[in-house]
Structure prediction request, 265 residues.
Amino acid sequence: MRRRLLGMIVDAGQGHPGGDLSSADILASLYFDILRIDPKAPSALDRDRFVMSKGHCTGALYTALAGAGFFAEAELDTYLKPGSRLNGHPNRAYLPGVETNTGPLGHGLPVAVGIAVAGQIDGADFRTFVLTGDGELQEGSVWEAAMFAGHRGLGKLTVIVDRNRLQQGAKTEDTNSLEPLADKWRAFGWQVAGVDGHDHAALLAAFDAAAEPRDKPLVIIADTHKGQGVSFMRDQAGWHHGVPNAEQYAEALRELGAELEAEMK
Prediction:
């Protein structure tokens, strides 16, 4: 996924590589192991719902959707091209598997809460997952939604926070401090778990635990690194945006290839 999405960004000449790389492991775990979804029936009523609240990180989302079979992987070559379905922000009118349009930060969780409330009212069995950025948690609409979700006891709602501690241009804690983050969620009536957001086994264990019956919504705070997998991008706010040049792209592919080989061994 990391190698593919970087190629898409280089080819398009734009994108959000830092956040794509920090969220790739979370999305891979969800789409290839956890979500009850069927690309042949993307609107099935009993499907799990996933909302990509950090909607600018479409490089990672689209590679996950393609890998899961929602559209042909060859279509990834059209990323951000004129007339492409693969916009800079996901659009449910264009792509199967996209539950709601996102991009303006702070909107995804409110929508996901609405979806979860509808399921609660209907007595439905589907689960709702939403991935947020941590800088996004500075939006007031997030906490309004969190308060309501806690009040409703939405036990089938799970939020994953991509806690890479960087946002556009700066550290989150320098911009508007979020800590103590776990305590804030608990105060709003949520169950809280922490996990290494790049450890697949730990992520899968956290998601398996999320499937247990509960009377509170769950937030999984995933500790991640912006630009994970590429040394010169890792933990660098400047790669929120940014396109690798030819030399940087070659180095990134080399590093990611070495990492992949080590994991396969």
User: Anything to note?
Assistant: The chain has one domain: 2-264. The beta strands are 49-52, 128-133, 157-163, 166-167, 170-171, 191-196, 218-223. The chain is about 40% helix and 10% strand.
